[in-house]
Amino acid sequence: RPRRIRREMSSDGGELCSARCAEQPFDVAFHPGDNGIFVSGLITGAVEVWENKGERVRKLKTIDAHTESVRTLGFVNDGALLLTGSSDRSILALDTATGKPLAKLEHAHKSAVNRLKVLDQNLVATGDDDGVVKVWDTRQQTACGSFAPFVDFVSDIAHVPADDAVAAGANGPSGSLVVTSGDGTIAHLNMANWKELGQSDNQEDELLSCVVMKNGRKAVAGSQTGILNIFNYGQWEDISDRFPGHPSSIDAMIKVDEETLLTGSSDGIVRIIGILPNKMLGLVGEHGEMPIERMALSGDNQFLATASHDRTIKLWDVGYLWERDLRAEAANFDGVGGELDDDDSDDDSDSEEGGGGKRKRKQKQKRKKGGKIQDSNAARDAVKKAAAKKFFDGL
Questions:
Q1: Which residues contact 336 (CB under 8 A, 6 or more apart)?
Q2: Would you call 354 exposed, middle or buried from its count of C-beta atoms within 10 A (0-12, 13-18, 19+)?
Q3: What is the pLDDT of residues 318-353, one digit of tens each?
Q4: 161, 211, 282, 352: which sits with the fewest CB atoms below 10 Å from its CB?
Q5: Radius of gyration (Cα) for the chain, nearest Å?
Q6: 283-294: b or e for each residue (b if 16 or more CB lie within 10 Å)?
Q7: From the CB of residue 389, how many other CB atoms can be counted at a distance below 10 Å?
Q8: Closest CA to 234 of 171, 321, 292
Q9: CB-based contacts of 67: which residues, under 8 Å, 6+ apart?
Q10: How far apart are CA 14 and CA 349, in angstroms?
Q11: Is the peptide bond prior to 277 cis by the omega test (within 30 degrees of 0)?
Q12: Hey, what's the torsion of the CAs at 169, 212, 343, 268, to 10 degrees?
């Protein structure tokens, strides 16, 4: 135990180790069968393959995948294939072992492929800069169906499994999709008949990330202005609750369990957030002052990878989030000077409060004004203090 805590103290941000990419990474993904292997997609069109050795990382290879940026990627077939989506509108399938291309869909979309979500062993969903979502069968290399509910870029895709109890009446055999867009809306898409099951009103704020929580009863969307918008599943017109407080945009989210998520923000901080009751539970660490572009969780839930504009991929030990004693300790976190407004409710009920130009417009506008700058600085100080506390507690 003390040894792991000492590794967490390897840098001021609290990360275990970091990988310095050749250029800015847009996405990161862990190999599903080997938690020590992860890949990054770069702005140059290259894919870098890395190995995590615990206290350090090692680059295994660089693959020249696309002529334009690799915006998104993911593993299929138990990690045998790596799929990449690019600004050149194509989707490429790479042999994971050799790095060689096996298949390429040259014009998979009419605009840049911005998001790729692996649904199961054979199905993959992709979203582009025009707001179009397509679902692909990797066995046939063809699109099973498509949706066009948005007028701006697809920012994130969450998969709701077919056996989800709450959504069972709306799901087909492959489940359904909850998708956010830069046009300020969130939509629920049925893969059985390729129709929209619902779409929110324009929230007048770019929605950049989403997860489905509370056993399928809630959908949470992170926004450009740092608000977590909470929707009742199946009631998409307007939010049922909102959780303001992030000083900058919430560009990435990872679901920990039905009540907890991780947020990656453009202020460079990874936060632990409780949903209903809404509360900041703690901080994983900080990525410097540069925005966090994407996050990925290893298959064993031990490591979190964050990709940032500072050209690094940082790895964090987050296994403690699944340890009951440390989760209870995190629940007593003081909120870093009140940066996030806590919801006083202790139950699962809703409060009464409710309520641009493709990817280029999305680029992280650092809205650090007034007290919000102080809040981010306080959060960074708290990261270092928390890391120090872990170190001394482990001695």
A1: 280, 283, 375, 378, 379, 382
A2: middle
A3: 999 988 544 555 555 554 433 444 443 444 444 433
A4: 352
A5: 20
A6: bbbbbbbbbbbb
A7: 12
A8: 171
A9: 45, 88
A10: 35
A11: yes
A12: -170
Q: What pLDDT is recorded for position 371? A: 38
Q: Are 263 and 275 in contact (CB under 8 A)?
A: no
- Token pair belonging to 234: 């199946």
pTM of the predicted protein model: 0.83
DSSP state, 69?
A: -
- Inter-CA distances, 198 with 67, 123, 175, Å: 37, 22, 15
Q: What's the token pair of residue 355?
A: 């309520």
The length of the chain is 395
**What is the number of alpha carbons within 13 Å of residue 134 lying toward its C-beta?**
24
Q: Which residues contact 328 (CB under 8 A, 6 or more apart)?
A: none
Indicate the SS3 state at residue 383: helix
Amino acid letter, 198: G
Which residue type, as a one-letter code, is found at position 241?
Answer: D
Angle at 79 between CA 297 and CA 76, to 5 degrees: 90
Q: Provide the token pair at 260.
A: 């907890």
Q: Can you read off the two tokens belonging to residue 106?
A: 């040259």
The average pLDDT across 125-139 equals 95
For residues 357 and 143, give the distance between their C-alpha atoms in angstroms, rounded to a whole number.
26
Q: Which amino acid is at 105?
A: L
With left for phi above 0 and alpha for psi between -120 and 50, is residue 285 left, alpha or beta? left
User: What tokens does 312 get?
Assistant: 């690094």
C-alpha pair distances (Å), 67 with each of 11, 45, 85, 126: 35, 5, 12, 19
Q: Which of residues 84 and 338 earns the better pLDDT score? A: 84
> Would you give the distance in Å from CA 206 to the centre of its chain?
15
Mapped onto helix, strand or coil, the DSSP state of residue 98 is: coil
pLDDT at site 365: 41
Environment class of residue 127 by beta-carbon count within 10 Å: exposed (0-12), middle (13-18) or buried (19+)? Answer: buried
The 3-state secondary structure of 353-375 reads CCCCCHHHHHCCCCCCCCHHHHH
**pLDDT at residue number 183:** 98
